[in-house]
Amino acid sequence: MLEGAELYFNVDHGYLEGLVRGCKAGLLTERDYVNLVQCETLEDLKIHLQTTDYGNFLANQTNPLTVSKIDTEMRKKLCSEFEYFRNHSLEPLSTFFTYMTCSYMIDNVILLMNGALQKKSVKEILVKCHPLGRFTEMEAVNIAETPSDLFNAVLIETPLAPFFQDCMSENILDELNIELLRNKLYKSYLEAFYKFCKNHGDVTAEIMCPILEFEADRRAFIITLNSFGTELSKEERETLFPTCGKLHPEGLRLLAQAEDFEQMKRVAEHYGVYKPLFEAVGDGSGGKTLEDVFYEHEVQMNVLAFNRQFHYGVFYAYTKLKEQEMRNIVWIAECISQRHRTKINNYIPIL
Amino acid sequence: MGSMFRSEEVALVQLFLPTAAAYTCVSQLGELGLVEFRDLNASVSAFQRRFVMDVRRCEELEKTFTFLQEEVWRAGLALSPPEGALPAPPPRDLLRIQEETDRLAQELRDVRGNQQTLRAQLHQLQLHEAVLGQGHCPPLVATDTDRSSERTPLLQDPRGPHQDLRVNFVAGAVEPHKAAALERLLWRACRGFLIASFRETEQPLQDPVTGEPATWMTFLISYWGEQIGQKILKITNCFHCHVFPFEEQEEARHAALQQLQQQSHELLEVLGETERFLSQVLGRVQRLLPPWQVQIHKMKAVYLALNQCSVSATHKCLIAEAWCAARDLPTLQQALQDSSSEAGVSAVVHRIPCRDMPPTLVRTNRFTASFQGIVDAYGVGRYQEVNPAPYTIVTFPFLFAVMFGDVGHGLLMFLFALAMVLAENRPAVKTAQNEIWRTFFGGRYLLLLMGLFSVYTGFIYNECFSRATVIFRSGWNVSAMVDQSGWSDEFLAQHPLLTLDPNVSGVFRGPYPFGIDPVWSLAVNHLSFLNSFKMKMSVILGVTHMAFGVVLGVFNHLHFRQPYRLLLETLPELVFLLGLFGYLVFLVFYKWLCYTSASAASAPSILIHFINMFLFSRSPTNRPLFTGQEMVQSALVVLALAMVPVLLLGTPLFLFRQHRRRSRKRPTGRQLDEDQTGLLDASNPSEAAWGSDEEKAGCPGPEEEAEFVPSEVVMHQAIHTIEFCLGCISNTASYLRLWALSLAHAQLSEVLWAMVMRTGLRMGNKIGVMAVVLVPIFAAFAVLTVAILLVMEGLSAFLHALRLHWVEFQNKFYSGTGYKLSPFSFAVEE
């Protein structure tokens, strides 16, 4: 890609960029959250959401209103927006969008396989699948018994196919293997996405690479955290880390050796970006969880992405911000519906 | 018309509505559309207000209405708008409507559900029929005969004896867009241990949900082995295929087919019965729904308005604040009394003082509306500011016509507008939905005047479709010229161009009575003559228009009681404008009046004089127009430049002095204020109850007036001064667009005539040829005239006239920073 996206970016993507910026302006503000938190019932929440950009999205829901209905409708709304962007996009933005959906597709595939393992019906699980990651062959996932089966029969035609190269094995799919599969898939996905953005160059690379680097490192941390006390060996653990982050290669090697949270924290202290994050994590009783801290940092990066123009990062950032907003609303709605108001303020504000 | 001059007086009124009658009062106000409610509960969020429950119930109802409406639309029926006046229903009716709606919706849902299930069954049956009747020939035979030579041995060898091999079938139907993916997935997942044949159904089947016809793919899969069968079933499930039992024997299949056909026949009859019932229910919905929709909509609006009221301390009445035109106050009083008489306690209105800027209300009729629209598009006027609309009624069409001047084109436009005006009461014209048409229709009176004025300027330019008309005798006499100059035949033959000299007696008999002499259309210097005329005319019109704008400012200053601005702003502005450009206009007139054709050769150039005026110099070749010209010019320039500092510093210094004087007096003044407010509070106990909210609503009590910030005033005035002084020059130049566009219009129509009509007229001399040729030629001429000269040129002239009004005229006096009074009204916006 040539330098100087400013000159011709708008020819192909100007409309969509304008649109996404407009959508971003419709995100809930601090004031909206303050109002939402005050709501007594879900009906109140609905009335308040009606005054925002969500509009009448719950108008056709029959009573009683539940959190999951709100969640589904919000997802539908995001999905329709995303579909609109995607249908109006040109190359290479459409590839970018495909990459964005891949992560949801991976989640869905894994969800379905787990469901098949627990002998749940496909319909039941389909409801839980993220609408952004839907694809036709998705439901056939449960016919596969080994990863290579899965690849050869089901996923070969989907955009996920290239990520499968590293995870071909003849192992029977049990719970652990599925989890490994997910992480391996995610690793190759992130690396491929990173490569795509890097090759694209320009502002897109400048914005997207840090975001993806952070995403990769976050996964590494989370994998490490989750693998404490499991039968996962350290060598295996290391193979799961995405290698496109800032931690690569030294940090990842150290992380692979870490045995508890303190050691992990010590690894993070070598990195200026992650040191303050780990320091912000509260201990056990109060304070924030590591996950929340990561979310906050992600939100911050995504908001900053809007400060630059002429790049694809805004689409990614918008989707992520919207997802965060949805998580916030769901959190608030859960707190309201369960009458558990003490923690209602633990949402992550979008600045 | 008097109300057009400035916006009407609008008062802030307080309405005390007894709780029992509040609903009827507000609904009556909605019918009348007199007042604009102010939100007294701005600090209370939407779901904590008083009538939230009622609003919510209305919304529930509206949701059901939407459902009913969609059902009606889906059945391909239309809802007619309700007729007659439908007042907001009394609150107790809500329950009745709600019950009836719910019953209707439930009924509809039931019937619709029945219909859906029946249709789904029918669909299933039909698919099954299609699968069976498609005549997928038993594939085993086909494969055996076709492929035995190559494939069979390979398949058979590892599986041992041939007899064990049992072929099973799965038959079903799938949506066509999934067929290819299904086939590929089957192949990959089962490694080819199957043979699948796909075929499209012969006739499209009705989709059970949407009712639209769609073709399906039927398939027949034959496979070997149990495990493969399991897999195939899973895959077909995940593709949402319909799988049907498939008999292997031909006869059994036939029997099944016949049974299916019989079943579907029966089902069709039941379905027909259901659909008849459905249409009955829909008919009822069609009849009842529209009035309900209007009524509930009104009811919701009333509750939303009531939500903006605050409650009095005793809970006996609601207090509303509203803007209302002072002229409508008696009507308002009467309406409130009438509608609250039932409740025993009457509603009360009283005016309260307010320091907020009231909204702007200019009443228009269908004639003035479009002109007011032009002004409002720039900015709604400040409260009681001079409204430029009444002047726009004349100046806008006139400036347009100056650019568009042509009798023929003007007449066409006038007739078009006239047709619209005459047909304006026809319902078909009124309700037309075409956006372009509505734009034209909305501006029909504007178009009418524009056409009329264009006819007038067309006569002045003496152009009708670019041809000159000879109404009076021309002022020039060619024969006199020929007689006096003694042109020989030889001379005439050699010179195609001859000069008419007005100085020769008898040649120029005097000016043409009205407009341009038609003889000019024959002259080669036609254009330079017209250019000089039009350019001067543009400057004269421009300076007059701008000076008029400055003078209108006087009415603003007088009305807002700022007499100092007369002296410190209007006067310097007028002197500056008239001293420089008014003088230019004077020069033009002077030269027109004082120089005859005899002295034309030695006439001085105004342009050079004007340039020299600013340079304080003189050019020897350019004679002065009158004695003492240089003195006058120098004096004017000095005077005009002297006005700049006055304009720049006058107002800020005056305000500063005023501020100083006032701040010295302040201590006593404040005490007095406090006394007064104390008294007010005591006399009005209810005020305390809503006082806090009222302040939030944006009406600060008697507070100090806006802080005086010298730097801001100076900055503002500096910007205004620079804008005005530079604007005078650039705006005057801007009026030259009148000349440019009228020139362009004239030339374009001239070209059109010369290139199309004249060529056409020259083509044949015989009557027959002429008649045949002229039909398409005239058609082309007519189409091009309308498309280019009327529509395109008309739009461009309109645009420029708009600009001249918005920028050049209105910035001299019009601030346009107000907001419109938008009364609470049930009336539908036209």
Automatic annotation (TrEMBL), chain A:
Pfam families: vATP-synt_AC39. One of its GO terms (biological process) is vacuolar acidification. GO terms for cellular component: apical plasma membrane; early endosome; plasma membrane proton-transporting V-type ATPase complex; proton-transporting V-type ATPase, V0 domain; vacuolar proton-transporting V-type ATPase complex. InterPro entries: ATPase_csu/dsu_sf, ATPase_V0-cplx_csu/dsu, ATPase_V0-cplx_dsu, V-type_ATPase_csu/dsu, V-type_ATPase_csu/dsu_dom_3. One of its GO terms (molecular function) is proton-transporting ATPase activity, rotational mechanism. SUPFAM superfamilies: V-type ATP synthase subunit C. Keywords: Hydrogen ion transport, Ion transport, Transport. Subunit of the V0 complex of vacuolar(H+)-ATPase (V-ATPase), a multisubunit enzyme composed of a peripheral complex (V1) that hydrolyzes ATP and a membrane integral complex (V0) that translocates protons. V-ATPase is responsible for acidifying and maintaining the pH of intracellular compartments and in some cell types, is targeted to the plasma membrane, where it is responsible for acidifying the extracellular environment. May play a role in coupling of proton transport and ATP hydrolysis. Regulator of osteoclast fusion and bone formation. V-ATPase is a heteromultimeric enzyme made up of two complexes: the ATP-hydrolytic V1 complex and the proton translocation V0 complex. The V1 complex consists of three catalytic AB heterodimers that form a heterohexamer, three peripheral stalks each consisting of EG heterodimers, one central rotor including subunits D and F, and the regulatory subunits C and H. The proton translocation complex V0 consists of the proton transport subunit a, a ring of proteolipid subunits c9c'', rotary subunit d, subunits e and f, and the accessory subunits ATP6AP1/Ac45 and ATP6AP2/PRR. Belongs to the V-ATPase V0D/AC39 subunit family. This is V-type proton ATPase subunit. It comes from Equus caballus. The lineage of its organism: Eukaryota, Metazoa, Chordata, Craniata, Vertebrata.
